[in-house]
Design goal:
It contains 7 helices and 9 strands, in the order H-E-E-E-H-E-E-H-H-E-H-E-E-E-H-H. By secondary structure, it is an alpha+beta fold. Strands 1, 2, 3, 4, 5, 6, 7, 8 and 9 form a 9-stranded mixed sheet that branches. Helix 5 links the parallel strand 6 and strand 7 (168-169).
Length: 240
């Protein structure tokens, strides 16, 4: 075999191997939601390509400032992808921002042919390997606390059953409710969710989303502006 033919074949083989390694890897996520007294914390870790790409998002503070001003959220973001990225910012969640988000969701549905079906198909490939949720609380009265503990158990397992309809639970959820019989009102809860999604299916799902958006006039243009956080396109209403 001549050299001019061996080099392209070797490069082609290398590309195929790299693509196989990428598409057979997983996107791992670790979500933790915690509330202890007045302290709130939400953490999300994302890892892909065998740890070469990492992102960490953290909400260490939620400040409620009334019905008019809403909630002040402090977001801390860091990651390696492959350049390190560190960013802290404060955002305000009020009635206006919630209305804007709902409006963007409605537009996204109109801008994508069968968005609900696409979302269900994608979630059905998400594997949950750990789902723990513990809650300790006291209502200040033993009888009320005991009654509320039973209701809390039912609510948790109802939510776990609802989640299992859309994702793959690889292990049984672990739910804990510990009533605290105290004269003082207290509340603490922690939920941990760990799972993964195949990188190959994530790419395939993204291509399907592009294809569905392309079927709607102005759909791709709207998604581009939505991802840039400046949606201004009103896509044509999806035909029946």
């Amino acid at each position: 075999m001549t050299l001019w033919l061996a080099i392209p074949l070797a490069l082609l083989l290398l590309v195929i191997v790299v693509l196989l390694v990428i598409f057979t890897s997983y996107i791992h996520f670790h979500l933790r939601v915690c509330r202890l007294g007045k302290d709130d914390r939400i953490e999300l870790d994302l890892k892909a390509l065998y740890g070469l790409v990492k992102f960490h998002y953290e909400l260490p503070k939620l400040v409620f400032q009334g019905m008019e001003r809403g909630i002040i959220v402090k977001l801390e973001e860091s990651g390696i992808a492959p350049v390190r990225k560190d960013q802290d910012k404060d955002e305000q969640i009020d009635k206006e921002s919630v209305t804007r988000w709902l409006k963007n969701i409605r537009k996204a549905i109109k801008a994508t042919h069968g968005l609900n079906k696409w979302m269900k198909d994608t979630l059905s490939h998400v594997e949950i390997t750990k789902l723990d949720w513990s809650t300790d609380f006291s209502l200040g009265d033993a009888a009320y606390t005991a009654t509320a503990a039973g209701a809390c158990w039912g609510l948790k397992w109802t939510l776990a059953g609802w989640v299992s309809r859309y994702v793959r639970l690889k292990t049984s959820p672990r739910m804990f409710v510990a009533p605290v019989f105290s004269d003082e009102i207290s509340f603490a809860t922690e939920a941990v969710c760990v799972g993964k999604l195949s990188m190959g299916y994530a790419v395939y799902s993204g291509l399907r989303l592009l294809r569905r958006a392309s079927k709607v006039q102005g759909g791709l243009r709207y998604w581009k502006e939505l991802l840039s956080r400046n949606p201004a396109v009103s896509p044509q209403k999806e035909a029946d």
